[in-house]
Amino acid sequence: MPGTRRHRSLFHSVWLALVVLVIGLLAGLRPAQAQIGSYRYSSIVIDARTGAMLSGVNIDEPRYPASLVKVMTIYMVFEAVRDRRITLDQYVPVSSHAASMSPTKLGLMPGTRITVEQAVLGLVTKSANDAAAALAELLGGTEDRFAQMMTLRARALGMSNTRFENASGLPDLYQVTTARDMALMARRLMSDFPTQYRYFATEAFNWHGRTMHNHHQLLHSYPGADGLKTGYTNASGYNLITSAVRGGTRLIGVVMGGASGGERDLHMVSLLNDGFERLNIPTDRRTPMQVAQRNVVPTAQAAPIAPTRVVAAPPPPAVMASARTVPAKTRPATAWAIQVGSFAAEQQARAAAASARRLTNDGEVKVMAAMVNRKPVWRAQLTGLSAAEAQSSCQTLNRRKTPCMILRPEQQQVAAR
To answer: Alpha helix locations (H) across 106-215?
Structure first.
């Protein structure tokens, strides 16, 4: 019996040692970062000006795009606006099909309407699947037909390994792409629509009293980042397209198949830093979290860059055109502002601004002239606000069903163009 126990003890010791050895070998074979080397992983970094590839792994391997699809959906919208088939302030009807989309979504109800611009902002920030389907039906009649249109346009752009099956990126076995195609898509959107590209820098969007924050965390944590899109499904893993500018040079990075959002973001930072260094451009080696801690404006108060067109507010109640302008407070010259509509007549814009002033009880009425599609328009604004006042005022106006857009101090000149 004692001998038997010794043999059993020896057997268990050897068996345990073998198990430890095998686990150690497997750990040595496992990649340091879970995404790198996984069957879902792809990445690429290109120079946006030349299209030259600075780095790439599995760039032509088929991958599920997830919500990166929405970049192509928005490309199709911008193209339709450019060709004057639709306008940004045109209303988009919401069907039962669009309203039934799985989250994330704006919560659109069947029979309601949303403007094209609001839908685009919903895609950029909330990654709203219901808004994507509504846009698809506006442009294609049905979402299936629109997906065919997207695929044909992708082929024309040179995206030879991409097939679209819907406008949102919701799971579909046949909807595939590659890292190279996604980088090409982003580059073409920037070059074909340089002004509209600013929409992808929108950090927050106010919708019916709710603030929709952009899922793209590097917008406010990686110096120089100004777009584009995140994506995730169980099959795809965590995907990301990011563009960043340093020293006058713009890079586009694509990461597909991340194991988590944080890992994906850190990996993108590493790839972009390496890309800039290859071009002898100094980089910031802090992590995104370290950079985010130094943001002057908290994420909750981030605001969208003003686009070239603004959603027109519904006709305001009749007011005197000479509505009293609020006496100016002692405010810094570079204050925040909000915009409540764009109108064909100065009097209508002034009335809308005055109405917004009465509802919010803050800010100074301002009407700004601009040219849109070679036509004069008048933009109704309230100026002289702090960041918190702008945020609060927009929330008040949204509760009253009045469109509102926040303008940062540095963005107000952009809005005037």
So the answer is: 116-125, 129-140, 143-157, 179-192
